[in-house]
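Sharing a chain and its predicted structure for anyone who wants a worked example. Both blocks are below, sequence first, tokens second.
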Amino acid sequence: MLRFFSSRKSWTLPYIIFAAVFVVLPLLLIVVYAFTDENGAFTLQNFHKFMEHPEDVNTFIYSIGIAALTTIACILLGYPAAYILAQTRMKYAETVVMLFILPMWVNILVRTLATVALFDFADIPLGEGALLFGMIYNFIPFMVYPIYNTLQKMDRSYIEAAEDLGASPWQVFVKTILPLSMPGVASGVLMVFMPTISTFAISELLTMNNIKLFGTTIQENINNSMWNYGAALSLIMLLLIGASTLFAADDNGQEKGGVL
């Protein structure tokens, strides 16, 4: 026993137990509930039910669209900010980065309620525009930081080599900096797209329950004790998230291979 606890591998045991209880087991329960009915018998009816409900399918597609728009907006707003901060060689650059990250320390519900209060104060009606604004506001730090971190750690010799070969500043950016920063962009896309497509509290608060996202559909089924159908919807969402993760990882690997 003493020899077991003295080995380095034994220190991974708590993490293995934690992952098994709080990650693997819930995922297995989702799969089991998704492929069973109320009596515990195997069935595909839950997925068939999803395909027969146009409202749920439309909500799923709409949620993907909102997540895609949020991700694109975060890239368009976050990349220039991260690039400018990474190019700035002054002490206040790290302070500005901290200001981007600071909202992440506040609970997402508190930030969303503050956004609702801001729209009410400005007398701006809540709706799809407020939803997109709230999504971008809540998740843009997850885009800025990984891109900034990648740009900060970039090997400057590539940029110097491109400049020595006569490349213009625009060519240096397009052919050197942008490709080398793609791992940070890919990480930011995953960190924005995945939570955006599964959120429900933001849409409920910023649209007064007038716009439903896929996370809200799952929540409603779970709250109504429709565990099997809710698990099937959760599994569909997990498969989409998993596919996007594998796609981003594959692109990331190809990008690294091309650079090397």
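Comments welcome. The CA atoms of residues 153 and 162 lie 18 Å apart.
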